[in-house]
Amino acid sequence: MADKSTATIMEERNELMVSPPGGIPTLRTAHFLKPTVNSQKDTPAFPFFFKTKTAIFNDKKALSRVQFKGRRYPQKNWKKWVDQLEPLYGTIWKKAGVYEAVMGSTYQTLRHNALIIKLAERWCVETNTFIFPWGEATVTLEDMMVLGGYSVLGDSVLAPLNAKDLIETEASLNNTRKNVKTGGGLSGNQYAWMNHFLGSGNQLEHEAFLSLWLSRYVFPTSYGCVAQNVFPIAIYLSRGIQIALAPAVLASIYRDLSLLKKWTNCNSEDGNSECDLWAPFQLVQLWAWERFPALSPQPNGLKCGEPRSARWHRLKKVNGVDVSKAIEFAGESFDWRPYTKLVNNWVISKFYKETEEWVWVDSNMDKEAISFARCCRDSELVGINCQEQYLPHRVAMQFGFDQDLPGYVSRCSGTLEVSWENYNRPIGHVELYMPPRLHESDVTVRYLDWWKEKMLAVEDEMNGVPRLNCSENHSRMTQTSLGSIQGYQNIVPPIYLSICNGVKDGGAIEEDKLTDGEILSHKSKKSVGEMAGDNQQLYNKHNRDSSSSTRDDGAVRKMESVESVKMSIACEVLKERPKRGIENAERSEVKRLLKSSRNSIEKTTSSAKTRVLEMDLEARITRLENIFARAKAAKINLLIFGGEKMKKETTSSKSD
After folding, report:
1. N or C: which end of the chain has fewer CB within 10 A?
2. Which parts of 247-385 are beta strand (E)?
3. Which residues have CB under 8 Å from 343's CB, separation 6+?
4. What ranges does the record give for the region Disordered, renumbered to this chain (predicted)?
5. What ranges do the domains of the chain cover?
6. Strands 357-361 and 379-383
7. CA-to-CA distance for 22 and 401, rounded, in angstroms?
8. 3-class DSSP state for residue 360?
9. Any idea of the CA torsion for 591, 593, 596, 597, to the nearest 10 degrees?
């Protein structure tokens, strides 16, 4: 087997992993999409993300100015035309990789525009991903293949015609377009075009059919007209030549999601602007219905041979559901890999393996496996008059891989042709890991720490709450990574309240009295990730509450004295707690202390002294956090690495 760490697409290494919602870290072999970052100094900047500050997403009048012009329902006789040509050209459509896409155009996805707009609220223009409170996700090339039926392989949509007979066919289509007009004199009208060619037996009927399909359902750019720029694509497809429609369609979706996000942000200043969107947004709606159970209607049963999109044919949206809340709290219910689940009469792709496999990638490889590799590799998406960056390594769990800190990928500079070369660069002479179909991916603990910390900062910024600078020691703890397996010095994430038998303010930890059984008993009581989330929120809630209050000089001095006593009392109470359930006691006491601090602070009036008290309380809290974190680190060390490591950590803690 080749050195998998040098593979161009993914890498394999041992890491401490945890489930996305949080849990007990587990050291195991993990698989990541490249590029990743595994050193703290290279930690990536969090994606620039803003939520619209106005109430536009609840303003029906404002949202009425958003026009989804790319969502087209089937014409009256469209299915009839498809059914007539399928027996004649179905084999050619399969060879060209558009059979499912053509058949899928006869089905109808009823609009749920509010869902699209709510998703756009979470769109990040920089990364072409959705930034949810619980993680990062996006529409990928895999979704284009499964939901749209488009191919990721083949020639570019910008490929020119290079044979005499093909060029002559294009000229004939252009001449016909000029002559096919509506009563108003509009050339190339789609209804007039269909009436002209449907059942005519014209030698151009197949090319004309595909031209209408491309203009209405794939690349709609002009309302109600057959576009001339799709003629070369239609001609190639009619000859069974494969065209990579998936990246082109996805590029248009990324482009319009960014346009919608920018429009909503600017609309607060210009309330009269309109937003015309031409991408096929029904695919985004299907993407959401496949992954958000709370938002999806009960799907239809599939008949043999029907495309995946038929599951949602003419289904109405779920009523009585708060879309924003359903998205915000979907962390544990979000389906990262819906296409790996068994569905009656739907054939699962070959690259969804029952067990993990390593496959050698070369030019002779199965096309489905090459397609999967293409879906998992960063690239430039080239569409018709648009170009977007594709970053699957940021959403690795959607492909069954584990998630680590995503590395930076530079943009491809140059023409669309150069960008296409970037997308179409060969995949060869590497081994590709194919994850098991039902594998549940995890994240590195450093990723979970990074994500939760940054999301708290984002939420504070959106709510207008200033972020306070913590002490140097606390800042260093926040950057601690559990992912590094060299040395194992940093075993727990920052700001964790850990298990301890006795804690005094500024004193040592009496941890050598704990037994292995007591530690193992505690393992199942509370997940580390849940503790991280709860206590980070508690810590920032304390900052927000404190920063919004004022007090006079006398109240400050009194408050400092009272809080010093309360901190000592809290620590003494923690010392006397029994071993079982002590973690909950610690959290409860600290919460009570902070709540009491907040209530007292709210009674004061001097803003000049607020900062002083905040820094004092922060320092005290930080000392407790350091003590708790060292205790947790020692105990997890015992679980993972044995008693010898535990003794060293205990000695170090006591010497402190």
Report:
1. N
2. 275-277, 357-361, 379-383
3. 302, 308, 311
4. 522-558
5. 4-51+352-443, 74-107+160-242, 465-655
6. unpaired
7. 17
8. strand
9. -110
| pLDDT (tens digit per residue) in 566-588 | 444 344 433 433 333 434 444 44
Q: Which two tokens stand for residue 487?
A: 């040395």
With 0-12 CB in 10 A as exposed, 13-18 as middle and 19+ as buried, what is 346? middle
Give the C-alpha separation, 58 to 62, whole Å: 9
Helix 205-213 with 190-197: angle, nearest 10 deg: 150
| Dihedral sign computed on CA atoms, order 39, 41, 42, 47 | positive
Contact 389, 140 (CB under 8 A): no
Find out whether 442 and 20 touch, Cβ atoms under 8 Å.
yes
Q: Which helix (H) or strand (E) holds 557?
A: helix 553-576
* Residue found by looking up tokens 């408050």 in the block: 559
At 634, which amino acid appears? A
Tokens of 380: 């430039």
Q: For 75-79, 316-320, 457-461, 587-591, which range has the lowest pLDDT when averaged over its residues? A: 587-591
Q: Tokens standing for 636?
A: 């997890």
Q: Which of 236, 242, 238 is nearest to 162 (CA)?
A: 236
Phi/psi zone of residue 33: left (φ > 0), alpha (ψ -120 to 50 degrees), beta? beta
Q: Please give the biggest Cα pair distance in the chain.
A: 95
Residues 6+ apart with CB under 8 A from 509: 500, 501, 502, 503, 627, 630, 631, 653, 654
Cβ distance 291 to 426 under 8 Å?
no
- Please identify which residue in the block is written with the tokens 């014209």: 202
Q: What is the pLDDT of residues 150-196, one digit of tens each?
A: 999 999 999 999 999 999 999 999 999 998 876 566 778 999 999 99
The SS3 of residue 376 is: coil
Size of the chain, expressed as the number of residues it contains: 656
User: What does the alpha-carbon distance between residue 494 and residue 481 come to, in Å, rounded to a whole number?
Assistant: 9
User: Picking from 250-259, 399-408, 422-431, 567-576, which range would have the lowest pLDDT averaged per residue?
Assistant: 567-576
Answer yes or no: are the C-beta atoms of 67 and 275 closer than 8 Å: yes
Q: Report the C-alpha gap between 606 and 467 in whole angstroms.
A: 20
Classified as helix, coil or strand, 383 is: strand
The CA–CA distances, whole Å, from 625 to 403, 444, 476, 505, 544 equal 27, 22, 12, 11, 19
- Single-letter amino acid code for the residue at 196: H
Instruction: For residues 498 and 531, give the distance between their C-alpha atoms in angstroms, rounded to a whole number.
Output: 9
- Three-state SS letters, 432-500: EEECECCCCCCEEHHHHHHHHHHHHHHHHHHCCCCCCCCCHHHHHHHCCCCCCCCCCCCCCCCCCCCCC
Please, what sign has the CA dihedral across residues 246, 252, 258, 264?
negative
Task: Read off the amino acid at residue 60.
Answer: K
